[in-house]
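User: My advisor asked me to double-check a structure prediction for MGF factor before group meeting. I don't want to rely on an old file, so could you generate it fresh from this sequence?
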Amino acid sequence: AAVPAGVLALLLWVPWQALLGAPLAELSGDQRFHIFLSNNLEFTRKIKGDVAALQRVVCDTFQLCKEEELLLLRQDLSIAQAPLERCHGRGFQAEACFSQIREGLRTYHSSLDAVLELLPGHAALVETLQLDAANLSSNIQHQMEDLGLATVTYPTEARGPLPAFSSHFHHQVGGFFILADFQRFLETAYRALRHLAHL
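Assistant: Sure, here is a fresh prediction for MGF factor from the sequence you gave:
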């Protein structure tokens, strides 16, 4: 059953649980792995900054700034959220977490097309964000292959055409939530990478 938007919002704002999981002894001493983590922590931070910049544009342009004011509208929108349950709490698993980050980046790369349509005057920033998401996904894929980590493929929602927004306003709200979801996704991914860097 679908989780009501209000409940979902509460779950998303629950204070961060300490990352748990068995130490990755075989990876923790690998110099290349730590360079990869360091580089991609910086890369993720950069992407987060670009998403925040677009969130400010949506706020300034459409006066859509506060998520709690829009939660009821969210129920009318078919916006896919990328799961990251393998990246935090008791479910933390390095291979599965990397796979979920990789898949999620692909999902948001596709979803950002809706933001591109919404903000044609900021196409360069949206396209840079899509390119960065694709590059980070590719980095993670190559690192998993280099380390011999198993690639776990999670069933993802069909990446069909963009959501059919019933009005321009719904499109604006949809763009708001795509960026808000992507920012939360990046926060979780960043914390997971930082956790691995400190093992």
